[in-house]
Amino acid sequence: MTNLLVGGEWTAASGGARFQTVNPADGTVLAECAEAAPADIDRAVAAARAALHDPAWADLPPARRARLLWRVADLVEEHADELAELETRDNGQPLGVAKDITVAGTAEHFRYFAGWCTKIQGDVIPVSYPDTLHYTRREPVGVCALITPWNFPMMIAAWKLAPALACGNTVIIKPAEQTPLSTVALVELMERAGFPPGVVNLLTGGPAVGAGLAVHEDVDKVSFTGSTRVGRSLVYAGAGNMKRLTLELGGKAPSIIAADADIDAAVAGNVMGALFNSGQVCAAYARFYVDRKRADEFTAKMAAAASRLRLGPGLDPESQLGPLITEEHLNRVDSYVRGARAEGAELVIGGQRADGPLAGGFFYEPTVLAGVGDEMTVAKEEVFGPVIPVIAYDDPEEMVARANASEYGLAASIWTNDLSTAHKLAARIRAGAVFINMGHVPDAATTWGGFKASGWGREMGPYAIDAYTEVKGVWTHLGGV
């Protein structure tokens, strides 16, 4: 059983409610977790507000904050094996992914932002008023509610926790109800690292907990990663006190494969770009525009490569693709595939739930669809599963308009041997990240976020410092009162 962390104390939910988290590989219950009630939200916000002004945190020198974040990274690495296994059991991702990407990425984000603690500074700005000194200060936004998704629960928590704390904010972390366990473990390590009570608070529970934080008048900022639908609701919820918002939302990343592309390299990159974490990635390559002269070759090789991937439980070292997160999500993915076939797409491989030894889990076969058109639902809406829709094109000049003809703009991919073509396309595509001849690999040091309905603001790198600080201008007349 897991509890809430509020003001430095681990407690049950005030109403005593609990919920279960399930292993998606076999449907078994892993743990019961506290379901936070409205009173718990109020307590957590009050604890974070008190800690924000407590000298133990507010007056902590930046170098000391840096050591706390660095200590978290050390603890994460010391407990890498158990954290990776916990993430695999709760989320389903292969153990190698959990250890080499999730856990390693979590430590990296804390280390990167530890380095920022001593470099958050303002500027002295010449102004046009005589005898006037003007300078700016970067100050914490305040109490930050950090709401994370289920697809990479611990690493995305680190994306938010590390910069928020580096900037001197206090936080309430609320993980997705499907995958709370690694976040609980991470917060336990943060407590061990020595953060003062109330600086880091943890609330677990369903959507009502996130909604309660979003409307709370004493929360200054919400950072949310999840669906565009929920992101839109947070915009309305935060309007009451004009909360600062960072929203990393849905995606439908186009991958453009030019006629001159190295098809074998494009296949290798796009198979993982589409199927990594069983396609449960916001930036997953999700619609494949292939020059018609190469479309049949690309489709056949993609199908062959996808069919060779080993589907199985994440704890099996031979598994390359794990389960989908829930039965409900599996049915949703399957409905998109069935809908595509009804609209005229050709099923090349996959298109069904895995049976046999995997029937007890939420496994869906890697699926390749040919003959897909831009107007089909599977080409327009976010599937978030192991589905590869191939769309042939004839005129390279129309590719930018077709790639941009989506409400989303999180990521895009270009495959070509002509760097002039690549960079011209990259400049015209409306997406927050464009990957040329490579997979989607976010890094702590650079920007992450989307255009259009894929979100507001940016995470990671120096852009995260902007997201978690307010800029204050200070004016001083030097000629006396």
TrEMBL record:
Active site: E248
Keyword Cell membrane listed: no
Family annotation (Pfam families): Aldedh
Keyword Oxidoreductase: yes
All copies of domain Aldehyde dehydrogenase, residue ranges: 10-473
Keywords noted in UniProt: Oxidoreductase
GO molecular function: oxidoreductase activity, acting on the aldehyde or oxo group of donors, NAD or NADP as acceptor
PANTHER family: ALDEHYDE DEHYDROGENASE-RELATED (PTHR11699)
Recorded family membership: Belongs to the aldehyde dehydrogenase family.
Name of the molecule in the record: Betaine-aldehyde dehydrogenase
Species: Spongiactinospora rosea
